Amino acid sequence: MSKLLTIALKDLRIAFSDTSALILMLATPFAISLAITFAFGGLGSQGGSGIEEIPVTLVNQDDGLFGELLVETFQSPELADLFAPEMLSSPQEARQRVDADESAAAVIIPAGFSDAVFQELTAGEASAEVEIYANPTRPISVSVVRSITGSVLGRINASYAAGHAAVEGLIASGLLDPQQAGEVAPQIGQRAGEQVFNARGIRVERVQVAGQREEASEFNWAGYFAPSMAIMFLMFTVTSGARTLLAERDNGTLQRIFAAPTRPWQMIGGKVLGTFLIGVLQMTILALATRFLLGVRWGPPEAVAALITAVVFAATGWGVLLAAYARSAGQVEVAGTVISLVFGAAAGNFVPRFNLPAWLQQASYISPNAWGLEGFNSLASGGALVDILPAIQALVIMGAVLFALSLLAYRRQMV
Amino acid sequence: MSAVVELSNLVKKYGERTVVDNVSFEIRQGEIFSLLGPNGAGKTTILSMICGVVQPTSGEARIGGYSIVREPMKAKALLGVVPQEIALYDTLSARDNLFFWGRMYGMESARLKRRVEEVLELTGLRDRAKERIKTFSGGMKRRINIAAGLLHEPQILLMDEPTVGIDPQSRRAILDSVKELNAAGLTVLYTTHYMEEAQELSHRVGILDYGRLIALGTQAELTRTVGEHEALYLQLEDGQMLDQLAAELRSLPGVLEASTTDSQVIVIVSEASSALPPVLARTAGLAFKVRSVEIQEPNLEAVFLSLTGRALRDEVE
Is the dihedral of CA A177, A181, A183, A184 positive or negative? Predict the structure, then answer.
């Protein structure tokens, strides 16, 4: 065991005494995080995403209560920072504003909308529709407009359900003659609608955007890119660490270690442990540096430590697998660079993950980057250890499978 | 003297290619045993099998009575290995390298500390112990490379062509230190393609060619196999067709063998005084310009030439 540790600590020492390795492992990801923080937020602040004062065009051709409710919602003081609403009378003109990219979406409320809503709720006969004419170049803004519209319509449905339940209750208790229900129900519906109107103070603290629970008006760039860069450069580190196994064979130190009374598992175990320790140290230093120098929130320390360990374990598995199947240190270097960049791009290390296509987000779960990034984002937005257990579990399984595949190949690679 | 290394019918094949072909010999305690042969003769492969880095296809190597295949840890603990290439970590200091290699042999802390200082003293590099290996000259790296093999005070030192590519001064220092270590009781297995080194150092020599052990014995025993012959070394001007000259000289009476190196023709003759005039006459007759002539008693070069028909140095890259 002591020989295994000696080999691991030797690698750790070599890595942290090599200036060029330190630049790649620590200085570069930190510099990128710093640049992003300056570019999008400023030190220590939660930088804005640009999702604010969304230009939205409203056309209300309805003269009833529900059309007015929807317009009032978009114009409410609570949403003043999020929307810059503009009232127009012509649907055609509103669509032109969207086509000209002067508006993110046009919300067109047709004439007779309130009557149609009421008829639909009471008799299920009419079809009440609000048209949202969307600007395809502003998908996030459009999704916010849709969410607000949907939220208002949902409240209308809830009010109807409450009114319906009230009528049923009155009949069941004998306070209302079923013969009179046809006269009383519209009055109750009218009052339920007024309740909706009075309760229009809708809160939009959290909005579902492409499945990502984020505060739409408070995307934290530094908080996203600090772990993002740390994970991507971790991949470079572990593939470089794995490369040293083949490099040792090329420069004769591997043979010299085997000429000493050292068992193969001590040698391979030492190299793997060394790479793992280098990765853990790299991630830890980056987390501490960005926390205390850039003010990045990483989350509860024990949960961050657990996730770092799991991410490095899985990443080391990829590095070891590369070394096991490659024929030369050069091959590992090239393949390692390709994998690091592909995993980084697919998992959202370069652009926010929720902006990527759904299929790519799914495919990226093959990488430690995706699980790690989602875990760190969860912790940064208030999650605890229990919230990231699935990610940790996935990373541990990934690492174990990769190590098992590597072992199958090592006999071929050894001297 | 008892045998500390025993090779029995050692074979190593890579696919269809046989690089070591049924080699058997013993190394006795306290001797310097040289494996002499051209590049590609199988010297490094034999050494690698003895120290357990390469598994033999068949046959056995025993170190101090322990089989390198069945009891590798016990066998390896008796060996010190000095590889042909500098097998050190460039970015670590000389002292850190030595500590690392000592730990690979399981040396406990106090003994390791003492031995590191001793070998640094021995190499004359104590003052530069804290400097990184990459700042060292080739000769200094060689000395640390050897020191790393001596740290754990092995019973047998395996040295694989330790003087390749270094300056004459460092070479001299290494040869002297091998003799000193041997005088102190260390058994040495030394591989080389330099006939002079084998002659200077060895108690016994094994000559390898194409993976086969073609001769084995003391220098006196080996040269006797050539007979009472002498060797003429004709140094010629560069750029001449030496192979053509060697072929012509072979047909002269009294000439037993003739071979060439870069600018030399080596002629094995039964008696130098009678063979030299016709050799020089034929050489001049063919318009070759002789720069110098040297007559030598039978040596390992002559043995190799006599056994293979080729000069040792033909094969040197």
Answer: positive
Tell me if B105 and A260 make a contact (CB, 8 A cut-off).
yes
Predicted pLDDT at A205? 35
CA distances from B184 to B32, B155, B178, B187 (A): 12, 11, 10, 9
pLDDT at B172 over 60: yes
Lowest mean pLDDT among B11-15, B163-167, B311-315: B311-315
Q: Which residue of A has its CA nearest to B93?
A: A14
Chain A within 8 Å of B69 (Cβ-Cβ)?
no
User: Is the CB of residue B64 less than 8 Å away from at least one CB of chain A?
Assistant: no
Give the pLDDT confidence of B104-117 residue by residue, as tens digits: 999 999 999 999 99
Q: What is residue B308's predicted lDDT score, i.e. its pLDDT?
A: 82
Place of tokens 């799991």: A310
Q: What is the mean pLDDT of residues A137-161?
A: 70
| CA–CA distance, B12 with B25 (Å, rounded to integer) | 15
Q: Mean pLDDT over all residues of chain A?
A: 80
Q: Are strands B3-14 and B156-160 parallel, antiparallel or unpaired?
A: unpaired
DSSP symbol at A235: H
Residue B265 tokens read as 């023709």
Q: Residue A187: what pLDDT?
A: 62
Pairing of strands B32-36, B204-209: parallel
Q: Is the pTM of this model over 0.80?
A: no
Q: Which residues of B touch A13 (CB under 8 A)?
A: 92, 96
Question: Number of residue pairs across A and B with CB atoms under 8 Å?
Answer: 66
Q: How many residues does chain A have?
A: 415
β-pairing, A83-88 with A105-109?
unpaired
Distance CA A94, CA A148 (A): 19
Place of tokens 């980057």: A369
Q: Which of B48, B53, B105 sits opposite A261 (nearest CB)?
A: B105
A13 with B92: Cβ contact below 8 A: yes
- Within 231-260 of A, beta carbons closer than 8 Å to B belong to 251-253, 255-260
Go through the domains of chain A in sequence order and give each one's CATH number: 2-44+220-414 (no CATH), 54-216 (3.40.1710)
Q: So what's the pLDDT on residue B88?
A: 96
Mean pLDDT of chain B: 90
Rounded to the nearest angstrom, the minimum Cα separation between A302 and chain B is: 34
Q: Please answer yes or no on whether A6 and B103 come within 8 Å at the CB atom.
A: yes
| Residue of chain A whose alpha carbon sits nearest to that of B99 | A6
Q: Does A410 touch chain B (CB under 8 A)?
A: no
Closest C-alpha among B248, B53, B80, B221 to residue B152: B80
Checking if the pLDDT of A250 tops 70, the result is yes
Of B52, B85, B100, nearest to A10 by CB-CB distance is: B100
Distance CA A52, CA A55 (A): 9
β-strand partners of B35: B191, B206
pLDDT of residue A200: 40
Structure tokens, A28:
């570069």
Does residue A339 carry a pLDDT above 90?
A: yes
Mutate to test the interface with B, among A240, A253, A257, A271 (most CBs of B within 10 A): A253
- What ipTM score was computed for the predicted complex, to two decimals? 0.83
A-interface mutation test, from B45, B73, B104, most A Cβ less than 10 A away: B104
Q: State residue A194's pLDDT score.
A: 53
CA separation, residue B277 to residues A166, B230, B249, B267 (Å):
135, 15, 12, 13
Q: How close, in Å, is residue A297 to chain B by CA atoms?
A: 36
For A188-217, the pLDDT digits (tens) are 555 555 554 444 433 333 333 333 333 334
- When comparing pLDDT for A302 and A20, which is higher? A302
For residues A187, A193, A194, A196, the Cα torsion angle rounded to the nearest 10 degrees is 150
Q: What is the reported pLDDT for B70?
A: 93
A263 in contact with B at a CB cutoff of 8 Å? yes
Chain B residues whose beta carbon lies within 8 Å of the beta carbon of residue A14: 89, 91-92
